[in-house]
Amino acid sequence: MIPVWVLTGFLGSGKTTLLGRCLKHPAFARTAVIINEFGEIGLDHDLIETSEESFVTLRTGCLCCRVRDDLLLTLEDLLRRRVEGVLAPFERIIIETSGLADPGPILMALMTDQDIAGRIALAGVVTTVDAVHALATLDRHGEAIRQIAVADRLVVTKTDLVAAPGEQLTARLAALNPAAVVIAAAFGAVDAEELFAGSGGKQAADLERWLASTPAASQPAQPHQAIASVALVRETPMRAVALTLLLECLAEHCGSDLLRLKGLIQIAECPDRPAVVHGVGHVIEPPAWLERWPSADRRSRLVLIGRKLQAAWVEALATALEAEVAEVLAAGQT
Amino acid sequence: MTAAVPDSVAELLAASLPLWGVSGVVVRDAAGGVEVTAGAVRFSIVRAPANLPFRWLLVSAERRRGVTGVAGLLRAVRTAVDPDFRPLRVRVAALPPSP
Predict the structure, then answer these.
(1) Is the CB of residue A34 less than 8 Å from the CB of residue A123?
(2) Which domain holds residue A133?
(3) A135, CA 20 to 30 Å: which among A100, A213, A222, A225?
């Protein structure tokens, strides 16, 4: 399957500069790019040097509002032309959203659309954060908050304009999305290969980093923001059915407020291979099994990022479901 | 024998009302069940008789409704107390217990 990366970030946060830099890297020669520009006259794609045939600009409106009309049809078309040999066999797709896009609908469409399922896989979300203006932007624009909350990797841009990302911004990013890898970039310079490597949060190497940044406890919502992260940690393995029920209840009761869910779970029936779970809103992807644990830490860890999430409720839910499953299994053995 | 409604479930229900934005209370009754009151809505949750294929019954003045587990109980309780709730029709596929 072809990995699809979503590159998002608020207006002026340096998405196009970053993408332009990445596309100059030899490793990105086989990359198809879809750019969504808001407005009748697109400029962004003129700022990027890449092969025209694998480059699509969408100017009909904001992607998150026209996912089905524009993005999915464009992806279909790209994949068809690749199969027909019209396009070089690209190995990666990067979608740059408009600066005002809510990435949630885009991610859900990529994860659920039947027509493209099986041919592409959402690899991850890279979000650019302007080191100079981000705090003010976050106070005013909910889209910017959601763009950060769903990210796998946060690229703090324009660090050349400030001495260092301020403590306030660092704390704000950690509160919004403690699980994301944070990378500082000056003049859009980052390790492009590393930034868009593999398949996002499902690679062992990536998980190592992700787990290292997993919060020890849930992060309450800060003033001026309604988004919080909740961490659920289990020292002992979970039964597969308990995890299934947990994910179902989370989707049902928090789905509309759940921006992102990520977890590394030790399943009791298969404790030596961790299951990676990943979800956006109501949609939970089928778990991916890693070959082995990325570190000696074998605790199950589930991180949820969203609005109105309550750590006490998630903990109570998991506890009740685990107790129920244990009781049923015990009854079956008597 | 466990209580009619285990502590873990009673605690979950008590934590659920604020999550759903519902004002109400969840209290234990003398028989080990739970009473839920939210505005004009009031019902009890009791252990279902052994001859029924349910785990618990939601009992109100109007009806009795059986539920088979925690997930179903949450859905039934929220349906009763939260007029804006629409149960999710899509179910998460069972996780294969091994790769």
Answers:
(1) no
(2) 2-200
(3) A213
For the beta sheet containing B64-67, the strands, ordered from the edge strand earlier in sequence to the opposite edge, are: B25-28, B34-38, B41-47, B56-59, B64-67
CATH number at residue A89: 3.40.50.300
Name the residue with tokens 């990378």.
A183
pLDDT over threshold 50, residue A40: no
Q: How far is A106 from chain B (nearest CA, A)?
A: 19
**Residue A65 within any structural domain of the chain:** yes
Q: Are residues A216 and A196 in the same domain?
A: no
Tell me how close the Cα of B70 comes to any Cα of chain A, in angstroms: 6
In a domain? residue A281 = yes
In a shared domain, residues A96 and A166: yes
Q: In chain B, what residues touch A242 (CB-CB under 8 Å)?
A: none
Phi, psi of A68 (to 5 degrees): -70, -40
Does residue B65 surpass a pLDDT of 50? Answer: yes
Residues A141 and A258 in one domain: no
Domain count, chain A: 2
A24 and A165, same domain (yes or no) = yes
Residue A96 backbone phi and psi in degrees, to 5: -95, 120
Percent of chain B with pLDDT over 90: 69
Least Cα separation, residue B62 to chain A (angstroms): 26
Grade residue B95 by pLDDT with cuts at 50, 70 and 90: low
pLDDT digits (tens, 9 = 90+) for A83-110: 998 888 888 899 998 888 888 888 888 8
Mean pLDDT of A232-236: 93
Q: What is the pLDDT of residue B89?
A: 64
Same domain flag for A172 and A276: no
Is the pLDDT at A278 greater than 90? The verdict is no
Q: Do B11 and A316 touch (CB under 8 A)?
A: yes
| Among A240, A286, A319, beta carbon nearest to B8 | A319
What percentage of chain A carries pLDDT values higher than 70?
A: 80
Pairing of strands A270-280, A288-289: antiparallel
Report the pLDDT value the prediction gives residue A43, as an integer from 0 to 100. Answer: 39
Q: State what percent of residues in chain A have pLDDT above 90.
A: 22
Packed helices B7-19 and A311-333: angle between N→C axes, nearest 10 degrees:
150
Chain A residues close to B87, C-beta within 8 Å: 252
* Same domain flag for A257 and A311: yes
Residue A206 lies in a domain: no
**In whole angstroms, what separates CA A224 from the centre of its chain?**
23
Residues A196 and A227 in one domain: no
CB contact under 8 A, A312 and B75: no
Instruction: Kindly report the average pLDDT of chain A as a whole number.
Output: 80
Q: Is B16 helix (H, G, I), strand (E, B) or coil?
A: helix
B contacts of A267 (beta carbons < 8 Å): 95, 97-98
At A31, the amino acid letter reads T
Give yes or no: residues A233 and A119 share one domain: no
